[in-house]
Sequence to fold (228 residues):
Amino acid sequence: MLTGLRWLALEVKYLDRAQSFYEAFLELDVRESGDGEVALAAGEIDLILRAPGSAPRGGLHTHYALSIPAAEYDSWYDRLDQRFDLSEHTFGDSRSLYFYDTEGNCVELGESDAAGPGVSGLFEVVLEVERLDRAARFYEQLGFEPVDWGEDRERVRMTAGDFDIELWEPHLGLADARGGVHVDFGVGVDDAAATVDGVRDDALAVENIEDGIRLKDADGHSVTLVEE
Fold:
């Protein structure tokens, strides 16, 4: 069983500039830095900024969503609206605002019931895939549950507890966002070896690393299973 997101890595051209952006505009603190990357604290989750280098690379033009307290939403909107061309959308009773970072990643801030203050977590990552049926089958075998297929069946939303992924065939989504390519993320699992057995035949690579077991899916995304 999957127990939640542990990290999301983004590839950035200029590490210092990207770090300054996230510290200044999203008020994220540095948790750890070194070896061409810096980990920022998005609640309990690491948002990793990684300079270009060896695999796994961080994602490019990745759309992802951070959670903020509903009570703080208006103040976040007012402050960011002074510097960015914001886009806003409503999902049921919850609002989200969208803007872009220095690397062309579409950042979403979504209302949540978190106490705050500030960013409290990361609840969604969008992956670009070549074949939606193949990708959905892989991630369902990994432990994600499909909950919403798009009207044109060019995307699917899948959930694992308090964390969702969306798989998109190439297209522009809300706020002209795109799914990320060669995204690197880590998820917690109860039993890494058993989870790998369900997808081993469909993975391009399976590698034991210090943090857990790293898989590469058919679209080149890296998923590390961290046993807890």
